[in-house]
Amino acid sequence: MRRSVFIAGLATLTLGTLGFGTGQKSYVASAQEKMSTMEVKIDNFSFGPATLTVPVGATVTWTNRDDIPHTVVSTDDSKTFKSKVLDTDEKFSFTFSKVGTYPYFCSIHPKMTGKVIVQ
Amino acid sequence: MHPFDIKTVVLAKHAQHVVLIHFPIALFIIGVLFDFLAQWKKQRLLAAAAYYNLLVAAIATIPVVVTGILAWQWELEGQKLKGILLMHLVMGCLSSVLICVVWLIHMRTRSKQAEFLPGYRLPIEAVAVVIVALTGHLGGFLSGVNGPG
Ligand SMILES: [Cu+2]
Question: Is the pTM of this model over 0.90?
Answer without folding.
Answer: no
